[in-house]
Every structure is written in C-alpha cells, then in structure tokens.
C-alpha cells in the first residue's frame, strides 16, 4: 500500500509539472516577446534565434520564426530573413501570410536570385490584399528588369501597378519614358500598336500624345484626345489628358438594339457577301429565344470597294448608331477599316483570311478560322496524337501556299519533330510525279542539284532539306511519314495518284514491309465530299482540319445545318457558319445586359461564346478568335470523311430541346 501511495504522489507531481509547462522554455519565450514589444530589431532577432536553437519544436516555434524573419528583414539580412520566413510557412504559420510572402519575394530579389524573385514578386503584386505592399513588390520587379536592361519587360511589369491603381505620376511615368528611350527609335509606335487597349498601352498612348504635342488643350488636338478617352475610358491616367475624364463620362449615343452588317452584297464579291448575310440572318432568327425581340440588323453594302466600305462604316457608326458591326469579309477592306473602327470607337467583328489585322487594336476582332490556326491544329494532331516525327511538304508556288508551308515547318520544329523534304509545284499542275521524285531525292541522283535547285519559291530564307542532307539516296516513307499539302481537295486528288506511282505509299496500297505508309495532310480546303469521290483509294487515311464539320454529331452544328437547309435548300459553308457565330456572340452579350459599345468591347475581350458552330472559344490577346479545330480523316472502310478529334459522343434523347428560331426575316 505504501508503494502505491508513493507512485500516486509521483504521478500527481508529474501531472502538475506538465500543466505548468517547461519553465525554461516559458522564460525564453517571454524574453522573445519582450524584445519584440521593445521594437529593437537586433535584440528581437537575437532572442528569437536563441529560442529556436533550443525550442524550435515547441508550440511557439513558428511564431519565433516569424518574429526572427521580420527582424532580419528590417536589418536587411536577406538570406536569414528568407530562411526564417520560409520556415514559418512550412511550419504551418497562418498569420499575415500575404506579408510573409511579400517579404520572401523582396528577399529573393535582394539576394540576386532573379529566377525565383520574378514569379514571387509578380504573385504578391497581383494577390496581396494590401495594395500599397503590392505596389512595393511591383516596383521591385520593375527595378529588377531595369537593372538588367530589360526595358520591354519593365514596361510590361508596370501593368501590375496599373491594375491596383498605384501608378504614380510623374515617377512611374518617368520610368516608362526612360524605357522607351532605351528601346530606341520607333519603339513607342510599335509597342503602342502591339499593346493597344491594355493598361500599359494606355501609358504608351499618353507618352505618344505627349511626344506629338497633343496634350495641349486646343481645337487641333481634340480629336486625338477624344480618341484616347474613348479607347481608355477607365484608365488610371485618364486625368492626365485634358478633357478626357469629361468625355469618358459622357453617355453613349448608341442604339443597343441595332447591329451593323458590312458586306459586299453587290458586285464582284456579291455572292460570298450574300452567303455571309444568310449566316447573320439565321442568327437573328434566335433573337426571340434570347429575349431580344426588338433587335434589328442594318445592312450596308461595301460593293467590294474600300472607299465605299469606309463611308458605309462611318454611316453605320455615326448615323445608324449601331452597337457593333459584323464584317467585312475582304482582307483589303479589313486593312483600312481596322483603323477607321478604332477612330470611331465601334466594335468591328471581321471575317477575313488575313491574320494580324486586329493586333494592337482594342475595337477590332477577327472571327475567321485562319490558315495559321488550321496548321497549328494539324501539327498538334500529327506530332502529339499520332506520334509522327518526320514530314515532307509539297506546296503550290504562290504566296499563300508558301505562308502555310512555312508555318507548318516552323511548328513542326517547335514540337521537336523534323521536316526532311520540301518541294513546290506549279499552282496549275496536274501531274505530280516529278514533284514526288524531287521530294524523294531520286531526281537529284540522276541530275545533281545546282544553286537554283536549292531555293524554294516564295521562301527566300529556306532551302530544300532533301538536298542539304548528305544522304541523297532517300527511301520513300522512311524519311517522311506524312506529307503536308496546303492546297484544295481537287489538287489533292490529282497529286495522290502521282505520288503513289512514284512509290510514296499514300493510302497504304503498297506492301508496308517494303514501303511504309505515308499520311496525306491538309487544311479546310480538303474538306469536301469530292475528296473521297474523286480521290478514291489514293486518299485513304488523309488527315485534315476544319472549323466546321457538317457530317459530325455535334447537336449545335446539326441544328444549324437543319435550319439553314430549311431556309435555303442547301448546306452552309464555313462562311455562313462564321457570320452566324459572330452575330450570335454579339447577341449573347446583349442578352446578358450589355447596352454600350464600351461594355461590349470589354465583354468581347473577356467572354466566350456560350455555343458555337465553328468551335469558337473566345478572342486571343491579339484579337483573333480561337477555335477548337475539328480533326478529320478519310476512313477507308466507310469511304467517307469522319471526325477523329475531339472524340464525338453520340447524341442522347435526354438532350434539352434547342431554342426555337423565329421565321426568316
């Protein structure tokens, strides 16, 4: 019994001791707190480090790391501060996380660890709840770029200040001006065009006004100042332009229920213009289902003439007061109207084949499925999904074919694959046996190549890889597994037999053990039923891409096709589909409550179509519509073109019924 009583007393004593804690640890922690309360950074750091040396695993360990990190930061002992603050976060510390991450980013910068500092500073500049602290991080990032002479990056980093409304005049503007001066002659114009519509673009536009002496409050400068107000009506530097704040606050004189349509409905380009108008009208038939019962279109005929198109756009914007304009479809008109739309402040949704016309313009967009986009999707399918590593290119000797060939070549190499043979041919060619022999290299075995043979039509900076290679005895299908032909389906059906005759195994019709199969590849111009009807066995396995595939299972496409057929007794083309998508996207945003051109511009830059016939995903920063391209293939068993990407899901009876279209206008 006596022994039991002794054990009980001992246990009680241990319990009481545990309840009181470790007196030594408590005294050490009290010393840390006392030093922190005194505001003495040296003393706080010393006491905190002493505590951590012995008690880092105790409950107060994370807090001691936080106090040590803050004190070391004040003392500019950057590596020590970063280690302690990182340790605090790793230990699960949750107090003042934004502040800790801010100090860590600054430490990385001051230590000279630029690779880690740049993303850390950018992150805290964007996400820190304290805008003043975020501005410190942004300026630290700008200074990093300035120190290394990275003037363009320094300018772009100023967006972090503009986003948080912490851009300071004149100091930050002086940094912008210094960057432009360092970048050299012409940099301001080039950068302002590239970044037009962005926050940094507004800074550059202000500098441009200043350079051109357009900030003087005179009648001669009013047009330039008004354009700045229209383009940057919510910019933090609006007050720096005389009159701009008042102009930006003026209510828009816009008819929110009028959409302009700018197409060549007569003349040489009248037929395609009329087709595009059909697509616009079919979209308008959805107005009632979108609760836009008073919506109307105002059609203006360009006649295929640039001057007539310019006058028509001005009339739509200034007299009809339309909220947006769909069109044009002719690249030559787009080259001029992009600047006119910027001047007028009206959103312009072009449908032109020429890329880059919307670049650097806040009010201009291009909704067309460009050749470049098709090429990129084709390369992704070939390299990423099919695993093809070696390619040949046969292209028509004209500017457009060469442009697509060059894009394909560049994208293939960017994916780590190889183009081993390239050859051009006459655009009117019907016999392609000689082209095949040149791609294989067998032509040059009989006739050694000279300087003229090495050159490629319309590609002055390129040369034929099959000649440049030291191995001239090439085996068909070994040096390339696929051939890209940026031409029409008609040309493809003539090219394929000639290639097969020269033992390039298109369609898999030669013994594969001797002649490995080669895949024929092309863009949307291949997508025609006659590719199979005319090409027969020679085009089996051909891979192509397009923005529109009428034979697929997509319910949106099938509904569009059915309604179009009911109206016009024919199938639609990509032109009608693009016009439909562009108009419907504007209608979608109007249905969501947009009532001004300014609001529409902002939403066009940020939003995505709720549904699309052409796979439209939303506009890129360069104003080009991004599309999810359909990858198609000639199926040898079905003897038809089928969709292989994205994989199609069979339509189910449970699908919601489509919105009902109104009668044709």
Task: Give a description of the structure.
With 665 residues, the protein is α/β, with parallel strands linked by helices. It has 29 helices and 16 strands. It has four domains: 162 residues, Tetratricopeptide repeat domain (Serine Threonine Protein Phosphatase 5, Tetratricopeptide repeat); 62 residues, no CATH class; 187 residues, 3-Layer(aba) Sandwich (Rossmann fold); 175 residues, Response regulator (Rossmann fold, 3-Layer(aba) Sandwich), CATH 3.40.50. A seven-stranded mixed β-sheet has the order 7-6-10-11-12-15-16, with helices on both faces. Helix 3 runs antiparallel to helix 4 and helix 6 packs antiparallel against helix 7. About 4% of the residues have low confidence.
Q: What about the largest sheet? A: 7 strands, mixed
Unreliable residue stretches = 6-19, 471-477, 650-657
Give the % helix.
40-55%
Average pLDDT, to the nearest integer? 90
| Beta-strand residue percentage | 5-15%
In terms of quaternary structure, the protein is single chain
- Main sheet strand line-up: 7-6-10-11-12-15-16
**What is the fourth-level CATH superfamily of the largest domain?**
Response regulator
- CATH C-level class of the largest domain is Alpha Beta
Based on CA atoms alone, the radius of gyration comes out at 33 Å
Helix-and-strand structural type = alpha/beta
The CATH topology of the largest domain corresponds to Rossmann fold
Question: Any guess at the CATH architecture of the largest domain?
Answer: 3-Layer(aba) Sandwich
């Amino acid at each position: 019994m006596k022994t039991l009583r002794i054990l009980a007393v001992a246990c009680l004593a241990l319990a009481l001791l545990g309840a009181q804690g470790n007196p030594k640890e408590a005294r050490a922690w009290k010393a840390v707190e006392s030093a922190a309360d005194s505001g003495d950074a040296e003393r706080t750091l010393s006491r905190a480090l002493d505590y951590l040396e012995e008690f880092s695993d105790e409950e107060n360990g994370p807090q001691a790391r936080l106090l040590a990190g803050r004190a070391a930061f004040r003392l500019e002992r950057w590596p020590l501060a970063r280690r302690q603050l990182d340790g605090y976060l790793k230990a699960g510390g949750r107090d003042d996380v934004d502040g800790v991450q801010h100090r860590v980013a600054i430490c990385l910068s001051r230590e000279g660890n630029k690779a880690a500092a740049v993303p850390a500073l950018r992150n805290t500049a964007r996400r820190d709840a304290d805008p003043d602290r975020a501005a410190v991080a942004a300026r630290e990032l700008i200074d990093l770029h300035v120190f290394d002479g990275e003037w363009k990056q320094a300018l772009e980093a100023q967006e972090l200040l503009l986003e948080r409304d912490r851009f300071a005049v004149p100091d930050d503007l002086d940094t912008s001006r210094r960057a432009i001066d360092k970048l050299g002659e012409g940099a301001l114009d080039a950068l302002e065009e590239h970044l037009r519509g962005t926050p940094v673009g507004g800074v550059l536009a202000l500098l441009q006004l200043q350079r051109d002496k357009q900030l003087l409050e005179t009648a001669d400068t009013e047009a330039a100042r008004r354009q700045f107000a229209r383009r940057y009506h919510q910019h933090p530097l609006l007050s720096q332009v005389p009159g701009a704040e008042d102009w930006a606050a003026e209510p828009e004189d816009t008819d929110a229920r009028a959409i302009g349509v700018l197409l060549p409905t007569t003349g040489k380009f009248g037929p395609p213009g009329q087709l595009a108008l059909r697509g616009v009208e079919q979209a308008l038939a959805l107005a009632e289902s979108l609760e836009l019962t008073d919506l109307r279109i105002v059609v203006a005929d360009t006649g295929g003439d640039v001057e007539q198109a310019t006058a028509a756009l001005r009339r739509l914007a200034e007299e009809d007061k339309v909220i947006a304009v769909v069109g044009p479809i002719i690249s030559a008109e787009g080259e001029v109207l992009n600047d006119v739309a910027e001047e007028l402040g009206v959103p312009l949704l072009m449908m032109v084949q020429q890329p880059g016309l919307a670049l650097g313009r806040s009010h201009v967009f291009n909704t067309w499925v460009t050749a470049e986009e098709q090429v990129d999707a084709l390369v992704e399918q070939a390299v990423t999904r099919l695993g093809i590593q070696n390619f040949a290119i046969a292209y028509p000797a004209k500017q457009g074919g060469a442009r697509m060939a060059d894009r394909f070549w560049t994208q293939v190499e960017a994916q780590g694959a190889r183009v081993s043979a390239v050859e051009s041919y006459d655009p009117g060619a019907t016999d392609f046996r000689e082209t095949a022999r040149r791609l294989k290299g067998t032509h040059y075995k009989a006739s050694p190549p000279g300087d003229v043979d090495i050159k490629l039509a319309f590609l002055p900076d390129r040369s034929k890889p099959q000649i440049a290679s030291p191995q001239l005895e090439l085996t068909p299908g070994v040096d390339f597994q696929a051939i890209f032909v940026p031409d029409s389906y008609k040309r493809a059906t003539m090219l394929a037999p000639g290639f097969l005759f020269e033992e390039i195994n298109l369609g898999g019709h030669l013994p594969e053990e001797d002649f490995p199969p080669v895949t024929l590849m092309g863009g949307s111009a291949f997508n025609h039923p006659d590719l199979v009807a005319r090409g027969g066995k020679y085009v089996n396995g051909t891979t192509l891409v397009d923005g529109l595939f009428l034979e697929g299972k997509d319910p949106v496409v099938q509904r569009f096709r059915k309604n179009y057929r009911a109206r016009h007794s024919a199938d639609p083309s990509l032109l009608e589909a693009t016009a439909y998508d562009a108009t419907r996207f504007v209608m979608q945003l109007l249905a969501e409550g947009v009532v001004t051109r300014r609001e529409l511009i902002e939403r066009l830059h940020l939003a995505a179509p709720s549904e699309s016939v052409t796979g439209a995903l939303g506009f890129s920063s360069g104003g080009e519509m991004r599309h999810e391209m359909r990858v198609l293939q000639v199926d040898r068993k079905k003897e038809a073109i089928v969709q292989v990407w994205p994989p199609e899901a069979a339509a189910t009876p449970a699908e919601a019924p489509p919105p009902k279209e109104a009668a044709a206008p």
